[in-house]
From TrEMBL:
Residues 394-624 form the Cullin family profile domain. Keywords: Ubl conjugation, Ubl conjugation pathway. Gene3D superfamilies: Cullin Repeats, Cullin, Chain C, Domain 2, Winged helix-like DNA-binding domain superfamily/Winged helix DNA-binding domain. It comes from the Eukaryota. GO terms for molecular function: ubiquitin protein ligase binding. The keyword Ubl conjugation applies. PANTHER family: CULLIN. One of its GO terms (cellular component) is cullin-RING ubiquitin ligase complex. This is Cullin family profile domain-containing protein. Transmembrane segments: none annotated.
Length: 749
């Protein structure tokens, strides 16, 4: 026979359960010798099981679900709340942690007793789980009553921690874990940290703002800029560590934003411009560590770096302008001295500019971690300084002269090969800041030509190295002609070797004078002044012999002789001793006239040489009024006039047996600038035509803007010049004014 299970009524069953709950409460109260054994546990579980599996109307699942919550609420109301209401401060926190721990134990045991209820009744009815009901009970009855007080106590303890006092960090962490656990869904689904965020984090954020607002005001008044930044950095580091000690990781960005906002963002101007210790003072005093700290701090906050980079830019600008003023003052004070002294001062200015750039580039790389804002600030500051004239010289000319001084033999700068390479790198970097790059290229090309033609270049490899650097930065159009010049010199040496072999193999052709000729390509080299000078017969024969030789090499090239660049060696037979004179071709030709005549007037010399009066004056001045008076002049004086008469100075002597008679340098600067302006007109014309050919119709403003943008890599075009070139193109019928649209142009195919 099947045994019939006895019906358990709700009152009887719950009476048994209340005894088990009472035992559980005694266990939580730490009473000795109280525990559940397996028999008592199974008896309680079986009671719930039987009451839930009885047939209606004796299925008490719903009533048991309600009584489960009543049991928890009754325990909290009679035991937990009275105990907590007696506690204050840290004792309240400890009581909260203890009661939450006990509450979780109670829920754990009750959930075991009521397990069958959780498995079937709750899941079928889609009701909150027993654990969820238990947590909600604690939250509603305990947490909601004490959360404001607990939050205040926790924030006060954290402020004590910030002040360096010792606090119970484990206690703070345990309390905040209560917030976090109550924020989460016990069922395991992700419900976020709403409770932690609303009831603690928001108040903690405001507390942090209040704390650091007061600290910032005190520190900014009492401390220097470096001291303030040191305290701020230490505080921010400790806040970050604080998150690891007892805060949830999600608090870190909110906490750091609050602290950084008060310590840095709201006081950025006061920190940077702090009297006697602000950013400019740190730059002036070269405080690398403090500048690095400043960058680290202000890079943390939004829009923190632009004010720092602006201050950096202003400081660099002031330092550059100070160097500029020193150079201008030094040049003005030396204006009556020799020209080469002024040149040395100008080159010294270039060296100082290079050193200044190195110094602040080091700051950008090390202190400011190569940040683009600071690269831009450095660039803009040097663009201002490097486009100012010094004593009438543009920076383009100065840097060309500096390159000349380190690349030519016997220059002012005497450097090792490594130092030369390093300096060339620095110069090319600075050139990126100069707007008139085409002017630098033209000055450099002129000086390169003189170095090559007069064998003054120290090293061909270094010349090519500089061209390679320029090509890399500015493009092949900048360097193609100069590369051709270097190639020409190599070819010229080969031609000279073949000419010498040709003379050796044909002794009858040998002129009485040794001749060295450099055949160059006109398109590569700067334009040089040429004159149809009447050469002495000795020189004429040399020229004719070389012409005949070169005709055998090529018949398709026309030779144009540039005698103004030539030089020669003549022997002056003076009374004291013969002296070898190293002179230019013009000087040599003039001196040889005195082999045929003892005295010659200015007009006779002009006629016989077929030279211009200006060139004749320069040559005669070098021979009769300068250091070496090879010729006597009547009347004597320091200037040459058309009425002067000259004769060979037989009494001239010098301690040297070989002397070089220099020719006064002609002012080539104006010609170079004129040539550059001419090239610029062509470049503007070409740019305007290119733009209009592709666009067909454009407004004046857009056309000018695009033209400036296209040409800015080479030079900064003058707006007035662009307007004049547009008018010229209209006159030449490349463009016309658009009849339908005002202030617009149309391209004419």
């Amino acid at each position: 026979m099947t045994q019939v299970r006895e019906i358990i009524l709700i009152d009887d069953g719950w009476k048994h359960m209340k005894q088990g709950i009472a035992t559980l409460r005694r266990i939580l109260a730490d009473e000795p010798d109280v525990s559940f054994n397996s028999e008592s546990y199974m008896a309680l579980y079986t009671t719930i099981y039987n009451m839930c599996t009885q047939k209606a109307p004796h299925d008490y699942s719903e009533q048991l679900y309600d009584k489960y919550k009543e049991a928890l609420d009754e325990y909290i109301t009679t035991t937990v709340l009275p105990s907590m209401r007696e506690k204050h401060g840290e004792f309240l926190l400890r009581e909260l942690v203890l009661r939450w721990k006990n509450h979780k134990v109670m829920i754990k045991w009750l959930s075991r007793f009521f397990h069958y209820l959780d498995r079937y009744f709750i899941s079928r009815r889609s009701l909150p789980s027993l654990k969820s009901v238990g947590w909600e009970s604690f939250k509603t009855l305990v947490f909601d009553e004490f959360k404001a007080t607990v939050t205040t106590v926790v924030i006060a303890m954290i402020d004590e921690d910030r002040e360096g006092q010792i606090i119970d960090r484990a206690l703070v962490k345990n309390v905040l874990d209560v917030y976090i656990e109550l924020s989460q869904d016990p069922s395991g689904s992700d419900s976020g940290l709403k409770l932690y965020s609303q009831d603690f984090q928001d108040a903690f954020q405001q507390g942090t703002i209040d704390y650091y607002s007061k600290k910032a005001q005190t520190w900014i008044m009492e401390d220097t800029c470096p001291e303030y930044m040191l305290k701020a950095e230490e505080s921010l580091q400790k806040e970050k560590e604080r998150v690891g000690h007892y805060l949830h990781s999600s608090t870190e960005p909110i906490l750091m934003e609050a602290a950084q906002g008060e310590l840095l963002a709201k006081n950025i101007d006061r920190i940077l411009n702090k009297e006697n210790s602000g950013c400019k003072v740190l730059l002036r005093d070269e405080k690398d560590d403090d500048l690095s700290r400043m960058f680290r701090l202000f890079s943390r906050i939004k829009d923190g770096l632009p004010p720092v980079s602006q201050t950096f830019k202003e400081h660099v600008n002031e330092a550059g302008k100070s160097l500029l003023k020193q150079a201008i003052d030094a040049a003005a004070s030396k204006k009556n001295d020799k020209k080469d002294v002024v040149s040395a001062l100008e080159l010294d200015y270039v060296r100082k500019i290079l050193d200044l750039h190195d110094k602040y580039m080091a700051y950008v790389i090390s202190c400011f971690q190569n940040h683009t804002l600071f690269h831009k600030a450095l660039k803009e500051a040097f663009e201002v300084v490097c486009n100012k004239d010094v004593a009438g010289c543009t920076c383009a000319e100065l840097f060309a002269s500096y390159c000349d001084s380190i690349l030519k033999k016997g220059g002012i700068e005497k450097l090792s090969d490594e130092a030369i390479e390093e300096n060339l790198d620095k110069v090319v970097k600075i050139l990126t800041y100069i707007s008139d790059k085409d002017l630098f290229i033209e000055f450099h090309r002129k000086k390169l030509g003189r170095r090559l033609l007069f064998d003054k270049s120290g090293n061909d490899e270094q010349e090519r190295s500089l061209l390679s650097k320029l090509k890399q930065y500015f493009g092949g159009q900048f360097t193609s002609k100069m590369e051709g010049m270097l190639t020409d010199m190599t070819v010229a040496k080969d031609n000279q070797s073949r000419y010498e072999k040709h003379i050796e193999s044909n002794p009858k052709l040998h002129p009485s004078v040794d001749l060295s000729v450099q055949v160059l390509t006109t398109g590569f080299w700067p334009t040089y002044k040429s004159s149809d000078i009447n050469l002495p017969s000795e020189m004429v024969k040399c020229v004719e012999v070389f012409k005949e030789f070169y005709q055998t090499v090529t018949k398709h090239r026309k030779m144009n002789w540039i005698f103004s660049l030539g030089n020669c060696q003549v022997v002056g037979k003076f009374d004291a001793k013969p002296i070898e004179l190293i002179v230019t071709t013009y000087q040599g030709a003039l001196l040889l006239l005195f082999n045929e005549a003892e005295r010659l007037s200015f007009s006779e010399i002009v006629t016989q040489l077929n030279l211009s009066q200006d060139d004749t004056v320069r040559v005669l001045h070098s021979l009769s009024c300068a250091k070496y008076k090879i010729l006597n002049k009547e009347p004597s004086g320091r200037t040459i006039s058309p009425k002067d008469v000259f004769e060979f100075n037989q009494k001239f002597t010098d301690k040297m047996r070989r002397i070089k008679v220099p020719l006064p340098p002609s002012d080539e600067k104006k010609k170079i600038i004129d040539d550059v302006n001419k090239d610029r007109r062509f470049a503007i014309d070409a740019s305007l035509v290119r733009i209009m050919k592709s666009r067909k119709i454009m407004t004046h403003q857009n056309l000018v803007a695009e033209c400036v943008e296209q040409l800015s890599r080479m030079f900064k075009p003058d707006i007035k010049m662009i307007k004049r070139r547009i008018e010229d193109l209209i006159t030449r019928e490349y463009l016309e004014r658009d009849k339908d649209a005002a202030n617009s142009y149309r391209y004419l195919a």
